[in-house]
Amino acid sequence: MSSPRVQRALISVSDKLGLGVFARGLVAAGVEIFSTGGTRKHLESEGIPVRDVAAYTGFPEMMDGRIKTLHPKVHGGILCRHDHPEDMKALKEHGILSFELVVVNLYPFESTVARKGVTTEEAVEQIDIGGPTLVRAAAKNHAFVTIVTDSTQYPEILEQIAAEGCTTPELRRRLAGEAFAHTAHYDGVIADYFAGQRSEGPFPAALHLHFQRKEILRYGENPHQQAAIYYRPDYPGANVVSAIQLHGKELSYNNMLDLDSALRIVRIFSEPAAAVVKHNNPCGAARADALAKALQRAMEGDPLSAFGSVLGLNRIVDAATAQVLTAPGLFVEAIVAPDFQLDALQILTTKPKWKANVRLLKVGELAPSLPHSTFRYLEGGALMQDADVLPDPETQWEVVTKAKPTDAQLAELRFAWKIVRFVKSNAIVLTKDNMLLGTGAGQMSRVDSVRIALEKAGDRAAGSVLASDAFFPFPDGIELAAAGGVTAVIQPGGSKKDAEVVAACDAKNIPMIFTARRHFLH
User: Fold this and answer.
1) Which listed residue (16, 73, 140, 508) is catalytic?
2) Domains 8-197 and 396-514 fall in the same CATH topology
3) 20 to 30 A from 225, CA-CA: which of 121, 170, 399, 417?
4) Domain 396-514's class?
């Protein structure tokens, strides 16, 4: 059967954004509007003709609005199948009007429980009953009913009704899917809230993750893999998923992973800082008194690896910083920063040879990452943990060697310790003068990571400090580092052979700090 003409709309919304314009458009298209409580009063205040649901059903609202639309004359009008003669006969016999359009958004439970100090009673009162029932009924009967759950859907719906008097089956089917996703998320938030009220620890008995698709990507890690990117509507703070792309080609799956890593590195620094990321590991990083200087030093950390890299910057990009990137032979894939000055944009999009290709992402003002959870998907399940974003308490640090680090060495060790947590385990970094010189990442043996970091640093390793994300199981890594010119070490400690590792440092007069905290990154 063809799509039924939209004769009547039932409107009951908590968020009234854009409602007046939408309702006026419906009235202009000949749609009769029924409404309840606050929504009806809002429409009347806008001068929009509306029929009271309570007057239609003959049953008053009661219990502070808990009972409004839970009535056969409402749900019969939504659930009736227009191509079933028995359904239409029942409507006529019981004086029930059909509703071809249902506009509902739910009580603001999520924003209510996010408020500091909210009581259980306040939370419970924001659990919508009638709203989800209307949404599910209309979505189930989407062959004949258009369900609207978000104000962003208003323009497309109104355009079709104004033009044809009805909506298309394709639109109704899509809106039904969005409606069920909406109620599923709503119920998930409620379930999570009640799980949090139980004394079962920080992890809920069931996970309810809500992401919305932002876009389809060209492909995944490899061209034969399909991919898409999703965002969390409730996630606070700057992030690459919700960033604004100011210039450049479409972002790839791998670009997004590297940009996220680059941003996570630079946001931990209060000083101007830059990070150069390749294959999800930092190959360059530096902090300085000016962003241009920090970037220059970060790029010099490993110039070979920096080709085709992704950059993270924690200050607004100015012209001086952009000029650093115009060096001959240099190519970067993408840059993420709080913002870009106009003269910097002019340079980056006109001067380098790669000007047309580089992706420039603006994320807005940066702040340290908030505590949150991370997830890793396994075949048949998932892992959940606290994100490793909190700074380490130096009160737990202990100098375990005879030699004590100088003030300069201690400052350098702090820098190295910040960087090493972003390197894949087994992780070793060498730094000097607040600049990353060598990275050993992802090796099965820690001593191999030391060897790679030394090879990357070359002659510059002399006078550097070393950070290790986990303990040295044997003294061989220390001995190799000392031979390469490392002058101080920071690591968690905790190995059965700690005494031998400390003795190796003492033999070379190298100060070493145990942090008592590991930073594995698998």
Assistant:
1) 140
2) no
3) 170
4) alpha beta
Q: Give residue 328's pLDDT.
A: 87
Domain 8-197: CATH class, spelled out: alpha beta
**For 290, which DSSP code?**
S
Residue spans of the domains in the chain: they are: 8-197, 247-362, 396-514
The catalytic residue among 279, 293, 497, 508 is: 279
Catalytic status, residue 140 = yes
Superfamily of domain 247-362: AICAR transformylase, duplication domain (3.40.140.20)
Q: Is 362 a catalytic residue?
A: no
Q: What is the CB-side half-sphere exposure of residue 319 using CA atoms within 13 A?
A: 3
- Binned average pLDDT, 10 residues per bin, the chain of 522 residues: 84 88 92 88 91 80 63 86 86 88 85 77 81 91 92 93 92 93 85 68 74 90 95 83 93 94 95 96 96 96 92 97 91 96 94 87 90 88 91 94 97 97 96 97 96 96 97 96 98 96 97 97 93
Nearest C-alpha neighbor of 6 from the set 178, 147, 174: 147
CA 433 to chain centre: 33
Distance, CA of 372 to CA of 334 (rounded, Å): 26
